[in-house]
Amino acid sequence: MRIRHKPWAKPELDACAFCVKSAKEQRGHWRALFPADQPLYLELGCGKGGWISQAAVACPDINFIALDIKNEMLALARRKLSAAFEAADRPVENVRIAIQNISLISEAFAPEDRIDRIYINFCNPWPKGQHKKRRLTHPRQLEQYLTFLNGELWFKTDDDELFEESIEYFRETGFTIRYQTRDLHASGWTENFVTEHEKMFSDEGKKIKFLIAVPQNKEAAEHGTVLSH
Fold first, then answer.
1. Which of 34, 95, 172, 191 is least surrounded by Cβ atoms within 10 Å, i.e. has the fewest?
2. From CA 134, how far away is CA 39, in angstroms rounded?
């Protein structure tokens, strides 16, 4: 999604107490940013903050990091987070936001960061063949995530082709699909925060696809079960 330059975005982020000024400088030390030692979840491509502003407030026992590549998007996410925590009458303690090019994610995260869960919500499907390597689920991305992922990856999309090809990407890269559904809203799955985009896609008649993938070594250790609907 293209968004016009907003001159107010960077100053807002610079003044934000829960915005990390340099993701690369934080590599290997993300957990030290949070007052409580809790599971650490990472959202890749948070956009305007529709998902993270719900999740971080609803789950105070989880620490969250939300990344985006654009100041303008991250500034809008900052506003949504601030409003959500203000409505909940709580300080913003369990979430940090940062600018980061996700194609270079290994520059910002190290094995020591031990991310317990990665979320990829409605990322750009990049449908053209020469652009598919830009997908956040492409094998060259998944291989980077494996270096610091300590648990699961949750992936949600409205795009059929992206979903089907991503299933193969996960398998090729050493992940096991623990759960998958091609119609999330009819599946009975309840652990879901519905964002504005998700509602829009659903109202258009598009079925929401969802899966949970885990590195094969972790799946074997936990004896997980693969489910599908």
1. 191
2. 28
